Amino acid sequence: MTKLTDAEAERLAMLAEEAAEVVQIVGKILRHGYDSYHPLQPDVLNRELLDDELRDLLTVAKRMVGEGDVEGNFLLADHNAAWKRKLRYTHHQEVALTGGDGRG
């Protein structure tokens, strides 16, 4: 038994759904580009869809912090330092958030 409340389980399901939607639009962008669009929605670019899905994902994540599901350390994290750590495993990123090569 997970001992999750119905509300906790629902928020986790929402988080998983939003994460999957981010993955889906990233796949479309990798195949077709940021400025491509669905033929039935030519006024909505993939770039805009990604922005919408990231907003939805962060909205659910922030709500989970507010409900006490997670501590929310990611909200207070030094994102520049996290980016610098990520740069160790990249090949094409040249600049950290605050400038320089960030590879420290």
Give a description of the structure.
It is a single chain. By secondary structure, the chain is mainly α. The chain folds into two domains: 6-70, no CATH class; 77-104, no CATH class. Helix content is 59%, strand content 0%. The chain contains four helices and no strands. Helix 1 runs antiparallel to helix 2. It is flat, with a radius of gyration of 17 Å. The termini are far apart. 4% of the residues are buried.
Describe the secondary-structure layout.
Blueprint lengths: L5 H27 L13 H21 L6 H4 L2 H9 L17
Characterize this entry briefly.
By secondary structure, the chain is mainly alpha-helical. Helix content is about 60%, strand content about 0%.
Strand tally, please? 0
Main β-sheet, in a few words? none
Global mean pLDDT: 91
Count of helical regions: 4
Descriptive labels:
4 helices; 59% helix; 104 residues
